[in-house]
Amino acid sequence: ERNGAVDGLRERIAADLERARRRTRALTDAVDDRDLTRQHSVLMSPLVWDLAHIGNQEELWLLRQVGQRDAILPETIDELYDAFRHPRRDRPALPLLDPTESRRYVGEVRGRVLDLLEAAALEGADPLTRDGFVFGMVAQHEQQHVETMFATHQLREGEAVLTAPPAPRRSADLRAALPAEVLVPGGEFEMGTDLEPWALDNERPAHRVHVPAFFLDTTPVTNAAYAEFVAAGGYSDERLWHPAGWGHIRSAGWDAPQFWRREGSGWVVRRFGVEAEIVPDEPVQHVCWYEADAYARWAGRRLPTEAEWEKAARHDPGTGRSRRYPWGDEDPTPERANLGGRHLGPAVVGAYPDGASPAGVHQLIGDVWEWTSSDFTGYPGFRAFPYREYSEVFFPAPGGRSEYKVLRGGSWAVDPVACRGTFRNWDYPIRRQIFVGFRTARDATEQN
Ligand code: AVJ
Ligand code: FE
């Protein structure tokens, strides 16, 4: 006799895998074979690498590890799709599967995975398969590469090939009614999770953190606000910049967010091959950590720490509990957050009142990833699971300095399966091809 809860879990896994694959197909079928195999930026893989890498990770974890099956193709391909063996800039020169072979391979893997899913034990003691964890990990992995492929498309020159309905707008009145910042009172909260079944290793374990009172921007920093910083000479005032950031913007010649171009007295932005005037009320996108840090200093503020961000996003002052999302424990919906690549960009600030936190912080989930001031490290009691290369190899060596800053909240391109109040992303502080913006904070002087 079958167990209804486990059948429901199998259906959910199959739906999450299928939703990821629809996105993968849309992004890889949108361009011709030449575009699939060429490199659009040295920062990115050819799309055909992402495609077969998605299938290869799925085969390694689900078919070979869980299912104990033999390799579908000669095992020499594993090495080609091992991200640690070949940096992105070298991938176009590898003897990769061609587009036809790649599509056949990922389709073959998926067919066998769906067979395996029917029979897999999802309730046992093994933490790899319990609650379907490793299936969820593979769905999240594919969706993370979907976001990476969106970034590749954004960097691609040439005709637009992706289209989507524009993100929702709100009336200016409603936006103007939002306070600029919200007070988060001081005190402890529970950071990270032991409960979220598909949380990745770096989100664990749950632990209590004391966060002094602080003020946080109600919404992400907008294009209009960022353009003021640019117009005020922010990019030529060395005092605003972290020394490494100053050196970087000078040598790279950056004087505005990536994809912005001056036109007359204003700015146009190129998005997926289409140029348009910047929308003043949209969150700014494509700024690196150093740019976010300099803006905050110019504004007399600072970036929030990762703990501050998570407390604002999860702490329920009514119960003292940490919740899954700013709005509560229920899954994201299109009314609560701009996720899943439904639109090809962020929505204006104030567009998701149903997604606000109890204190009234908006758009913490979706729209743009948000830079935090924090380095990427393991929580107290961290244990790598199920592989060191997901998170642990990116932590600083003991006594060493971190190379990565933490990003929170998820962008419009992120699928809900890979987005929650505990989810942690990270990147180098000079990177800005990802769908990233920020909001600012300041200390509150209140006693706590
Ligand atoms: C967590 C987004 C930094 O894309 O490099 C994909 C996710 N890990 N394949 C990345 C990931 C392995 C990772 N980030
Ligand atoms: Fe990967």
UniProtKB/TrEMBL annotation:
Q: Does the keyword Iron apply?
A: yes
Could you name the domain of life of the organism this protein comes from? Bacteria
Where do Basic and acidic residues bias regions lie? Answer: 309-318
Q: Which residues form the Sulfatase-modifying factor enzyme-like domain?
A: 179-442
Q: List cofactor names only.
A: Fe(2+)
Question: Which segments of the protein form a coiled coil according to its record?
Answer: none
What's in the keyword line of the UniProt record?
A: Iron, Metal-binding, Monooxygenase, Oxidoreductase
Where, in this chain's numbering, is Fe cation bound?
H53, H141, H145
Task: Describe the reaction catalysed, as an equation.
Answer: gamma-L-glutamyl-L-cysteine + hercynine + O2 = gamma-L-glutamyl-hercynylcysteine S-oxide + H2O
The annotated region (Disordered) lies at 309-338
Keyword Phosphoprotein assigned: no
Tell me which EC number(s) this protein carries. Answer: 1.14.99.50
Q: Where is the DinB-like domain?
A: 17-149
One Pfam family of this chain:
FGE-sulfatase
Functional pathway: Amino-acid biosynthesis; ergothioneine biosynthesis
For gamma-L-glutamyl-L-cysteine, which residues are the binding ones? Answer: R88, R89, D90, R91, D427, R431
Identify its protein family. Belongs to the EgtB family.
State the function annotated in the UniProt record: Catalyzes the oxidative sulfurization of hercynine (N-alpha,N-alpha,N-alpha-trimethyl-L-histidine) into hercynyl-gamma-L-glutamyl-L-cysteine sulfoxide, a step in the biosynthesis pathway of ergothioneine.
Q: What protein name does the entry list?
A: Hercynine oxygenase
Q: Which organism is it from?
A: Sporichthya brevicatena
